[in-house]
Amino acid sequence: MLFLPLLVWYISLVLGIAQSSSYKSAIKQRQAPDEPQQLPGEQRLNDADQAWLDNIKAEVDLFPHAVEGDDTLTVDPLQGPPFRRMEGVFPQTLISGECTAEQESIIKRAWDDAKLFTEAQNGKWKKDYDYDKTHKFWLGDDWNATTHPEAGVRERAVIVNRKIKLVGRLFKEAHLHHNQWFLWRCNNARRLNWECSDVRNAGTWAEQSERTQNIMEMTTFCESFFKLETIGGQVAQHKDDADKLAKIGYFEQSTAKTLLHEVWHYNILGWPPIADLAYGMYNCRKLAIVNGTKRAFINSDSYTFDAINIYLDNLIDYHDDDPKDSDYHPESNSDSDVDMN
Ligand SMILES: *[C@@H]1O[C@H](CO)[C@@H](O)[C@H](O)[C@H]1NC(C)=O
Ligand SMILES: *[C@@H]1O[C@H](CO)[C@@H](O)[C@H](O)[C@H]1NC(C)=O
């Protein structure tokens, strides 16, 4: 789940494909590929939202600044308990005082696993792996049509290639601008109009201070996130069952999957913003087949499942690496757009 609010004018809510209208990113637009526009909806602020925004604005402008008397803690611009530094993840990541040590270690583990996914997606492991085939499966046939005669097709392919590299680099060796911050919360989003629920694993927003230009990319991890299995746990669980191991549908949900899904929404990966046009393997596959790269190139789960697919293909020595629709176990073929992430 992604929200990309702009401090200045409005909060834009991305609600899958339910809303469509014009969209402004906090990040300056580069040359536009054609038709990426069925993206985030725009929601005018009502008076209560506006008042809330005005209220936090002063603190956002100051962020990040230390809590008086303790410079290891940072004030929460949204009135929560102070944040502390989180080590071993992206630089300039702060975690809310609302998160327990156990929750922090679950997030850290998810980050480590998500890093492995992005390494696999960036070709770190098996050199002879057929990346083209898996990328086509999740991101559509035109994912690498960088020399296509049509500008829009070509541009989208350039964007897919660039984004995959960028997400890999972000995990590997992020050199962040001093204005770039990641804020991670647990259970409480401290936002109007959004709270954790049984069907929500996480939500992500970005805000930029007009005055300091600090960009805060904020992710809330919900209670249901902390109950998810780890990818390692799933692999271990299925290790004696070749049939399950070979079906990626058994690896649709994990802590690392949710974390990586949220990271794909971060503004730091550049324009265009990655939205939620389809959730879940079944719907992403449908997106790749029916709508192709034209839509899949801006869909978070499409990139995420692509990475997980490559990771598993590299990890498990399948006889047959070709992704197939029969790789989904039927239970995962939910057609509903449940907002799981
Ligand atoms: C993508 O296309 C370029 C040439 O346009 C090619 O060199 C490269 O191998 C392709 N990548 C994959 C993974 O097929
Ligand atoms: C994908 O294409 C189908 C059929 O044209 C259309 O109904 C659907 O809205 C498209 N999905 C997206 C996310 O654009």
UniProtKB/TrEMBL annotation:
<keyword id="KW-0732">Signal</keyword>
<keyword id="KW-0378">Hydrolase</keyword>
<feature type="signal peptide">
    <location>
        <begin position="1"/>
        <end position="16"/>
    </location>
</feature>
<dbReference type="GO" id="GO:0008237">
    <property type="term" value="F:metallopeptidase activity"/>
</dbReference>
<protein>
    <submittedName>
        <fullName>Metalloproteases (Zincins), catalytic</fullName>
    </submittedName>
</protein>
<feature type="compositionally biased region" description="Basic and acidic residues">
    <location>
        <begin position="322"/>
        <end position="332"/>
    </location>
</feature>
<keyword id="KW-0645">Protease</keyword>
<dbReference type="InterPro" id="IPR024079">
    <property type="entry name" value="MetalloPept_cat_dom_sf"/>
</dbReference>
<dbReference type="GO" id="GO:0006508">
    <property type="term" value="P:proteolysis"/>
</dbReference>
<feature type="region of interest" description="Disordered">
    <location>
        <begin position="322"/>
        <end position="341"/>
    </location>
</feature>
<keyword id="KW-0482">Metalloprotease</keyword>
